[in-house]
Amino acid sequence: MDAKVLQQLLFKKIKEQLPEHVSLAEDLGELLGLSPDSVYRRIRGEKPVDLEELQAICRHYHLSLDGLLQLNADAVLFQAPGVSNGSVPFEKHMQGMLEQFKYFTSFRKREIFYLCKDTPFWYFFLFPAMASFKTFFWSRTINNQPELQQELFSLEAFPAEECRRIGWQLLEEHNKMDSTELWNLESIHSSINQVAYYRDAGIFRERKDLLAVVDDFIRMLDHLQQQAEQGITFLPGDSLLKPHGSLHFYVNELILGNNTILLNLDDQKLSMVTYSVFNYISTRDTRFAAKAFGTFNTLLSRSSLISRSGEKERNKFFNTLRDKVNQLRN
């Protein structure tokens, strides 16, 4: 394949990953400091991009040069936001996720598919006590923030208002997308274990803080059941007449995979895999996406759909989850 064709394919690939309202020529002109005529000459392959421009393009659009040139058929480039920054406050992690979700909803067609080894983390921000607890847990126990290491959890001392505000915005953006979620009875186990650990280790300052978190855990499950019943995603207090994203809620009682998020954005595929609890890596590699979507669809074919239909199975599933959570009161 000659250099001109490769260069045309480069810009075709970039164009495909941009939302419809973003002009490739204007975006490149701003990035490279070039006139519109100079940009279009490069897009058409009439003017070769130099190495400095190619470096800037690959960095800005998160492209793999070896992937573009097909130098290694088994190599997949992943992006890992924040991996070079060391430990950052949890609020910054939340803000980064919010920006990602705003990017997702900038596309006309936006579909999100979630393989839920754990509960999708944005749902923890539906209700204040659970939102505060999860923010404290992630910040103290996972992110190892020094100022929290000797602190006990209480809602009064740690309301986590900023993370709750960002979490609510995350939910608003998420609810603009059509969702397919694949759950398992173990999808809430890690959160149950976190609450139980803090209870047994005496990290709840008062019993009323524990009970408030458990109450909100139950409220979250009640809300998720209501979403499944209606087949849409919505916020507490929303009118069902308000525009909402659709929800297909599946349960698989046998197979438990990794936390995996797959997105279809104007027919462009994005794959995300979580690591280190709340961090994630993502790729636009079409081969990886094809394999990930294929596996997801295979799991769906062996799962039970409990949104809109399947009332008996839906009630059984959520009643079982509530029974598990209520045991935390003991």
If you had to describe this structure to a student in words, what would you say it looks like?
The protein is α/β, with parallel strands linked by helices and 330 residues long. It is built from twelve helices and seven strands. A seven-stranded mixed β-sheet has the order 6-5-4-1-2-3-7, sandwiched between helices. α2 packs across α3 and α7 (128-142) crosses α10 (207-230). The longest helix is centred in the middle third of the chain and has 24 residues, at 207-230. The radius of gyration is 22 Å and the shape is globular. The mean pLDDT is 90.
Question: What are the defining features of this structure?
Answer:
2 domains, seven-stranded mixed β-sheet, 330 residues, 48% helix, 7 strands, 434 Repressor (Amino-terminal Domain), alpha/beta
